[in-house]
Amino acid sequence: MLRVAVPNKGSLSEAASAMLTEAGYRQRRDTRELVMVDPDNDIEFFFLRPRDIAVYVGQGTLDVGITGRDLLLDAQVEAEELLPLGFAASTFRFAGPVGDFSGVEQLEGKRLATSYDGLLRDYLAERGVKAKVVRLDGAVESSVRLGVADAIADVVETGNTLKAAGMEIFGEPILKSEAVLIRRTGEGGAANGTAKEIEVLIRRLQGVLVARQYVLMDYDIRKDLVEEAATLTPGLESPTVSPLRDSDWVAVRSMVPKKETNRIMDELYDLGARAILVSSIHACRI
């Protein structure tokens, strides 16, 4: 069986399970379950702390896992990113008291508090900045006020918490993170030599990503306008064009980006298309 690590709680957990369900895999109904077998797909899921997943995968105990890119890099284990999953986006940044810092070079000799000490040490080393890294498990933004650190490096979403603590973001982003599928690197690869099963998992997850980003658009249009319409709806390869009873008209079907749906419909209508319909895509293989 393919052994897969899934986040058991936090912002990654619900979205990861929802994506796996859309990909056709069984998921737990009780959050107290730690292991769940899906015999139809020959796969076993282990629900673990997001921060621990990279460690289990990197040691070869589990074949693949879903975790954050920031957690993967911070763990500093023999594991690699296979596929970005498009959810749980966040940005890892520096922050300090308002007006104190403007760039990373000013952190030389300073104390930096963070929950991601491995990731931060690598970032500073790559830039030749020597600073003392203070590892904290949470409430990093309070460390400056309490005198533990001069600045912090933390995951930033809205920045409201930092403002409330009298701090501001400075410098370039350290890392842009999101949920990712990972597997072991180095000698041995996946724990059980399950390369084919991993390919199937990746293909299914890619299908979910495409289904979430695209819709199917159908419309009728005069034959002499098909080429212009195709520039608006080129599809992934090319649009499907089918004859209608009226020989001067054809039916067109194409995949279009979901976020551009209404703009494309308006432009097609102005061009002369009619009976423009949009359908959701529940699953696909590209």
Summarize the helix and strand pattern as letters. Answer: EHEEHEHEEEHEEHEEHEHEEHE
What percent of residues adopt helix (DSSP H or I)?
25-40%
Shape: globular
Radius of gyration (Å): 24 Å
Helix and strand content put the structural class at alpha/beta
Low-confidence stretches: none
Strand content: 25-35%
Domain Histidine biosynthesis HisG C-terminal: 211-282
InterPro entries: ATP-PRT_HisG_long (IPR020621), ATP_PRibTrfase_cat (IPR013820), ATP_PRibTrfase_CS (IPR018198), ATP_PRibTrfase_HisG (IPR001348), HisG_C (IPR013115), N-reg_PII-like_a/b (IPR011322), N-reg_PII/ATP_PRibTrfase_C (IPR015867)
Organism: Arthrobacter gyeryongensis
Family: Belongs to the ATP phosphoribosyltransferase family. Long subfamily.
Topology, pairings included?
Blueprint: E1 2-7, H1 11-22, E2 35-38, E3 43-48, H2 50-58, E4 64-68, H3 69-75, E5 79-84, E6 90-97, E7 111-114, H4 117-126, E8 132-135, E9 151-156, H5 160-164, E10 167-177, E11 179-184, H6 195-213, E12 214-222, H7 226-232, E13 240-243, E14 249-257, H8 261-271, E15 274-280
Parallel strand pairs: 1-3, 1-4, 7-8, 7-9
Antiparallel strand pairs: 2-3, 4-11, 5-11, 6-9, 6-10, 12-14, 12-15, 13-14
Helix pairs in contact: 3-4
